[in-house]
Design a protein that fits this description.
This protein is α/β, with parallel strands linked by helices. It has one domain (about 5-220): P-loop containing nucleotide triphosphate hydrolases (Rossmann fold). The protein contains 9 helices and 8 strands. It has helices at about 15-30, 35-50, 55-65, 95-105, 110-125, 135-140, 150-165, 170-190, 210-225, and strands at about 5-10, 30-35, 70-75, 80-85, 85, 125-130, 145-150, 200-205. The chain has a 5-stranded parallel β-sheet, with helices on both faces. It has a 3-stranded antiparallel β-sheet with strand order 3-4-5, covered by helices on one side. α2 packs across α4. The two termini are about 15 Å apart. The model has no long low-confidence stretch (mean pLDDT about 95). The structure holds 2'-deoxycytidine-5'-monophosphate.
Amino acid sequence: MKKHFAVAVDGPSGAGKSTLSRAVAKELGILYVDTGAIYRTVGYHTFSKGLSLDEAGEKVTSLLDEIHIEMRYGADGLQRMYLNGADVTDEIRLPQISMYASCVSALPEVRAFLLEMQRRLARENSVIMDGRDIGTVVLPDAEVKIFLTASAQVRAKRRCAELEARGTSEPYEEVLRQIEQRDYNDTHRAAAPLRKADDAVTVDTTKLTFEESRDAIICVIRERIGK
Ligand code: DC
């Protein structure tokens, strides 16, 4: 029998994957793995080298040798990202890094480079892992798969509130445009595009509160693995 179980949570940007997965991890006492943060760390590396978005896409493959990524968990259970030894947890959340992450994540070489790191975490721990291709590529045998979604407008509103709370407000129209652009990039790329796994359960949070969404996810998990 397997020692650990895995919950794969996929869906578009801003559907609430990370906040909800973190809350569910806490409730079930399992590890939360935010895979977007890993792609953001690679994107941040290209950004910090002064590359434009186009250059980042062209050059990132040749830069992989100089990228060493580590994930560490603090006493608070929160995931921190280290790039070549430096803590970049806060920097990777800067709004401009989202597009860099989306751009570098389209390259198969980048995805292959990060695959084993994600699988190892799931071998060594019970996890709830969120991303775009967790149920389809990274953990195709995950015991539970959830496809978390919400309308682009609601996702943009939530992202605006989040940015405001962080003191980096951006206009709603611009946030919506970026969300739609990233949806397009993430679903149309050739390498591991965002798509619902055939055996995933869809949870649409457009009309749900945070608590309702969390409970809906926990309910799916309990049904599947009896936790
Ligand atoms: O979830 P996020 O917004 O932090 O992710 C940043 C980008 O990384 C997003 O545009 C898509 C990409 N990504 C991916 O391609 N595969 C994943 N498993 C997670 C994120």
